Amino acid sequence: MKVYGRILFGVGCFLLLVASWAAAMSARSTAEKQLELMAQAAALTNDGIYILAIPLLEEAAGYNAEHTPAAEEALKRVYLALINQRGYHRRYINLLETQMSRRDAHPDIFAEAANYFIKISRLPDALAALRKGIEKTGSEALISLYESNRYAYEINRSVYDYAAAIHGGRSQVLIDGLWGLAGADGSLQIPCQYDKISTFSADRAIVMNKGEIFAVNRDNNRVAKLHEKASDFGNFAEDRFSLFIDGAWRRATGEFLIGSAVFEQIGMYSGGHAAAKSGGLWGVVDLATNWLIPPDYDEIISDELGRCYARGAAFARKGDSVYLYVDGRRIGDVYEDARPFSSEGFAAVRKNGKWGFVDITGNLAIEFAYDDALSFGQHLAAFKWGDLWGYINRSGQIVIQPLFIEAKSFANGSAPVLTERGWQFITLIEYMRGADIGL
User: Fold this and answer.
1) Exposed site from 70, 97, 217, 329, fewest CB < 10 Å?
2) Does residue 74 sit in helix, strand or coil?
3) Rounded to whole angstroms, what are the CA distances from 180 to 50, 61, 187, 210, 224?
4) Cβ proximity of 323 and 330 under 8 Å
5) In whole angstroms, how far apart are CA 92 and each of 88, 95, 121, 284?
6) Rounded to whole angstroms, how far apart are CA atoms 207 and 211?
7) Which is nearest to 64 in space by CA: 112, 26, 8?
8) Is residue 271 scored above 90 in pLDDT?
9) Which stretch of DSSP H or E encloses residue 60?
């Protein structure tokens, strides 16, 4: 039995050697076949006979062997030589997609695809290729190429007399003294027919028409009416807005349930908090009327919509000094002016007459260099140099040149800007394809 076992073992080793030799010979012959095909194709392409070189190179590239990458590169060059003829554009893209899908795909493949798409004016496809390459390879070169192209935008044709900052995917817009709501891309959604309109939240906006106050939904259908006598109201968010009744401001819900707390003034809620004035001074109050920042200040810094609070942070002014409060505690430096934080975590602040940006810990994130600025929204911040506004990214690089008379923060991929025609909306091309622009 032992002899029989040795014989079987020997036969097995022999068969394994034969199989290995056969595989090696097959691989060698496949590689040789690739070289032969590629040499034949090279002779044809040297004479400009691309059409006959293609089947040779496609066969060579079809093998899973040593020279497949070189065959693919040669094949792409031939496709590009015939790119204006029918079918070769698609063949070239298909081959790029095959190369990009491989686990060990090189960053250069993604850059090649992106540059080709940019050349043929297909920027969204270029950005998609770069995002895929960055996710797969982490290449700094791809990140740089992505950053240099991702902020291309289109400008909406709609023009308004005024457009407020975007909130809830809508902007309050004004035409001939009457208010309506535009979508984030600038398209009018609720006609400009009201004496006043609030921000849009929870599928409704508060409106005033000839002294009557009621709520409308996204289709401009009335959904609730205020029966109490009020002469003014504030912006709507987090199921709260303010009503001016009998000489004081009170809070109400979207169904017009009016609270008992009374304020001299109160802003728009954000993050569960709002700036409020009591006893002649300002503080920050929560939904339950508890003071996060006691009313001891001349002003709580708010944006044009009335928002003052995000990520636990708010700025308070006393005299000529502005202080940063985080979770009710004062931190950081003293500033001349500031803009409220958004969810981005970088806020614009002013020192020595120039604007820069601090993070939520109060540390300087971008140097003081700008004539004016707004806090970051969707990883972009509006800044002013001289008379015009543009946008920087979180690295402080100018990514949208200062071309606008005024500019507001990005939200939902868009921002209102003032041009020579009036207020219009710019929308990032990347966002139009549903991309996450927060990379």
Assistant:
1) 329
2) helix
3) 60, 60, 11, 15, 18
4) yes
5) 6, 5, 16, 60
6) 10
7) 26
8) yes
9) helix 50-62
pLDDT for 430 = 85
Q: E-assigned strands of 298-397?
A: 299-300, 313-318, 321-326, 329-335, 337-338, 346-351, 354-359, 364-370, 372-373, 381-385, 388-392
Q: Which of 57-71, 81-95, 255-269, 424-438 has the lowest mean pLDDT?
A: 424-438
Backbone angles phi, psi at 143, to 5 degrees: -60, -45
Cβ-in-10-Å burial (0-12, 13-18, 19+) of 368 comes to middle
Please enumerate in sequence order all residues whose Cβ is within 8 A of that of 299, keeping only pairs 6 or more positions apart, or say none: 282, 316, 317
Bridge partners, residue 284, by sequence: 275, 293
Half-sphere exposure of 252 (CA within 13 A, CB side): 27
Angle at 110 between CA 133 and CA 33, to 5 degrees: 120
For the record, the structure tokens of 293 come out as: 């920042």
The Cα 222–Cα 23 span in angstroms is 77
Q: What is the DSSP letter of 280?
A: T
Q: Looking at 393-430, which runs of residues are DSSP E strands? A: 398-404, 406-407, 414-419, 422-428
Please give, one letter per residue, the 3-state secondary structure of 153-198.
Answer: EEECCCCECEECCCECCEEEEEECCEEEEEECCCCEEEEEEECEEC
Tell me which residue has tokens 């300087």: 364
Gap between the Cα atoms of 61 and 58, Å rounded: 5
Cα–Cα distance for residue pair 383/407, rounded to 1 Å: 8
Percentage of residues in the chain with pLDDT exceeding 90? 88
Residue type for 207, please?
V
Q: How many CA atoms lie within 13 A of 378 on its CB side?
A: 20
Quick one: pLDDT band at residue 434, thresholds 50, 70, 90?
low
Query: Please, are residues 182 and 422 in contact by the beta-carbon 8 Å criterion?
Result: no
Locus of tokens 């029989």: 4
Query: Do 168 and 418 meet the contact criterion of CB atoms below 8 Å apart?
Result: no
Q: What confidence tier does 344 reach under pLDDT thresholds 50, 70, 90? A: confident
Torsion of CA 24, 30, 33, 34, to 10 degrees: -120
> Does the structure show a pLDDT above 50 at 250?
yes
φ, ψ dihedrals at 102, nearest 5°: -75, 150
